[in-house]
Amino acid sequence: MPIYTEQKNGKTTYTVVATSRINGKQVNKKKRNVTSIAAAKRIELDLKLALTRLKEEPQMCTWIEWSEKCLDRMKLQFKGSTVANYQSNFNRWVHPFFCKKLLDEIKPSDIHSLVYNKIEGASLEARHGVLKRLKRVFAMAVEDGIISRNPATGITVKVPESPQAVLNRTEINTLLSEAMNKNHRYYAHWALALLTGLRKGELIALTWSDIDFENRVISVTKSWGRIDGIGPTKSTKNRYVPISIELERFLKVLRSMSRNDNKVLEQHKEWLYGDAAKSLKNFCKEIGITPIKFHDLRATFITQMLLRGVPLAKVMKIVGHSTIKTTMRYLRLIAEDTQGATEELGIVLPRAEEKGNLVSLFK
Q1: Residue ranges in the chain whose pLDDT is less than 70
Q2: pTM for the full model?
Q3: For a tag site, which of 15, 252, 294, 306 has the least CB within 10 Å?
Q4: For the domain that residue 137 is a member of, what is the CATH number?
Q5: Are 52 and 46 contacting, i.e. CB atoms less than 8 angstroms apart?
Q6: How far apart are CA 351 and CA 101, in angstroms?
Q7: In angstroms, rounded to a whole number, what is the distance separating the alpha carbons of residues 283 and 169?
Q8: Distance CA 237, CA 6 (A)
Q9: Would residue 187 count as lying in a domain?
Q10: pLDDT at position 24, please?
Q11: HSE on the CB side for 54, CA within 13 Å?
């Protein structure tokens, strides 16, 4: 039962690994990022006892029994909305076909048939979501030694990447000026999203105590969701967004006009439940710019940062992406925003001399 020491960012953590053969199969249990050797030794004992119980009382579950156990475990790891999505997904697509089947009876061909044939009327995105959740639940069964192989491994659903819309600089100015001139109820919401890159849930959760005017930063430590209410951010990590001069001016005006001593943005019901997104798309069509969704304001913020030479790693840190690969997806959107930018060069070529029907391009 080895305990491994790992060094990362100057900190020492421990990884505990327990291994045993159960019914002729090697079963591994692992716990990472343990912060002390004492805790690692306690976890080592717990893992050993868990393997012993599995060895002495092997038990095969039906699909529905095992999926319910997994969802109970997930409640300790994930947001309530994530668990609810799993439950809804299984109720609709998986339980009708796998309900009473034993886990070891479910074969790769069954998974393939379910995902590709039995889910009638489902989009590719929905099929991909079903497969992703099946892979996780079966992986948990492999980790616990209930089955030896994940039957969903090797099956894929290729989903075309959905187009991401962004506004260019001219469209940004048009949106904000038109919204302000018409005293639009969501002007402040759209402006703050464009100036900070915050997600909708982060904007809803933003309070005046998160705004540090002295140090010129916004602390992003929480997010709002319909099911979970106020909780951690999407990545579960806190971050800071620098306050620009324009953002500082805007926030101070907003503060002077605010009727709420706590929340930065007006918290009317329509804003919480999606009306801002519908209003944004309709308003963009009305004023003749690219119709976008609310989340596209965040994408616009990211592309504008990259266009102005902010390093990729710094953008990633500001917007709270877990991996730089996510931030890099926005690089291709820059090409769309730069269309027509070379018109700003101001270079005018000399006009060719016309001679009858012939044009002399060079003298």
Answers
A1: 1, 22-25, 54-59, 335-363
A2: 0.68
A3: 252
A4: 1.10.150
A5: no
A6: 79
A7: 17
A8: 21
A9: yes
A10: 63
A11: 27
